[in-house]
Amino acid sequence: PVQVFCPACGFANTFWGKTTADGTLIEHFGRRCQGWFEDDDGHREQCDFRFRFKNCPQCNAENDIAARRCRECDTVLVDPDDMLKAALRLKDALVLRCSGMSLQHGHDEKGEWLKITYYDEDGADVSERFRLQTPAQRTAFEQLFIRPHTRTPGIPLRWITAADILAQQALLRHPDFVVARMKGQYW
């Protein structure tokens, strides 16, 4: 077991996880904070911070990864297996069973970027590139890549440049599947 502090309420959660020999947290498998709040009337409420979650496509609320309905708007959440089956039926989609990923950083006239390449067991690959120049681009990168791929959710990955992310690549995990859509001649 490992101890992970909630970034929302500060509660010391105990989850299954992995640490290095010196006790540095490498990965944890917690889903929701186990902390509780109590108001002046004695009413208790559990902290709603989620370490692992799936977003509602309707309202973007964070839901438990096993939830069938959104806790905010009550929209039916699509099962990831059903989404994968639907993607396999599409003619313009490439579905990779991801066995690894690599990161590469660079710089051009538009600024700094980070390229992530996902690989399957057969050697096929697909990549995506994130620009990291503006605050909006950096926020999008945090939300679309860092948050779902971190091995230690709730513990911020400290970075300033793309090289900082490369140095911490061991703290990131590859997805199980990647679904890429054809845009022009590129995936």
UniProtKB/TrEMBL annotation:
Q: Which domain of life is it from?
A: Bacteria
Q: For this chain's UniProt record, which GO biological process terms are given?
A: translation
What InterPro entries does the database record attribute to this sequence? Ribosomal_zn-bd (IPR011332)
**What's the protein name?**
ATP-dependent helicase
